[in-house]
Amino acid sequence: MQYFSEIKGEIFKNKSLAPLTWFKVGGPAEYLFTPEDKTDLIQFIKKYPSHFPKMVIGAGSNLLIREGGLSGVVISMKNLNTINLNGENIYAETGALDMSIARKASMMGLSGLEFLIGIPGTIGGGIKMNAGSYGSEIKDILIDVEVIDNSGSVFHVSQKELKLEYRKNNSPKDWIFLSCNLKGVKSQTSIVRTKMKEIINDRKNNQPINQLTGGSTFKNPKKLKSWKLIDEAGCRGLVLGNAKVSEKHCNFLINNGNALSSDIEDLGEIVRNRVFDETGIGLEWEIVRVGKKVHIKREGSYE
Ligand SMILES: Cc1cc2nc3c(=O)[nH]c(=O)nc-3n(C[C@H](O)[C@H](O)[C@H](O)COP(=O)(O)OP(=O)(O)OC[C@H]3O[C@@H](n4cnc5c(N)ncnc54)[C@H](O)[C@@H]3O)c2cc1C
Hints:
The protein is of the alpha+beta class and 303 residues long. It is built from seven helices and 21 strands. It has a five-stranded antiparallel beta sheet with strand order 6-7-15-11-12. Helix 2 (98-107) packs antiparallel against helix 5 (189-206).
């Protein structure tokens, strides 16, 4: 592809995306581009036709990629991982891991970012999802974001302009987040570390964090908990093919090892239907599902 002629990063054709996601399922990207740095990415976007398909991937911790894969280019942000401290603010490129930002903040005794220690994504994915936990969300700590749009224009927007809601970012879909400024509050390293340890322990006890999963499958409906609705609908431990509803936290779907992407997605739909039949509530997917659907014969049915 001519648009890759002057890039410095890596480019692969027909590259499987499964290893780049937590679920470890899914088909290939027509092109997988890993820019060497921010300038490399900006130069590429300026040349790449705005109507051609493209998608960004962070840590792949909230993504279910279908077997048919993705046309166009998938851009991995993993090399855009600079984190700099600036007083009580933190500058981070959006491929930086939430956990790395939390650790850096704790070293400087900055409080407010502890919740990031438990979110296994990048800060770019966090901004896109308005990720959150333990009573905090990205919206609370975000000052502004550097963006590149489809036309290749680079500009800054404030947190308010993103119109963040619960697990939702209302900014234009073509925006790629390049870097951001985050704010903390001066505290003490020991206090911040204690809070982070509590979060880590709580997650170990209550979530299947060592399994192939995409985190919370469905958003919580207002004033309700999805896991509770799923449990009450009798879906805890439900199996389809090689996918399973986690016994430990039933808003998590698990790839037992050889699951197809469609096992996971179809199991999610069965759960949605059962919850709807039981309660009349339509659960909304939090996991981002992308790629072409293809029909692959599955072994067995659900039990
Ligand atoms: C074990 C586990 C626990 C989890 N716990 C939580 C939790 O407590 N709270 C929570 O909110 N989430 C949680 N998640 C979900 C997930 O970690 C978050 O949504 C995270 O913010 C996703 O970041 P990512 O880099 O992995 O994004 P990806 O999964 O790679 O992508 C998600 C979406 O963001 C877009 N995106 C990624 N980077 C950019 C960018 N730079 N610019 C524009 N768009 C971008 C992608 O195109 C995609 O649409 C959990 C997941 C797992 C596996």
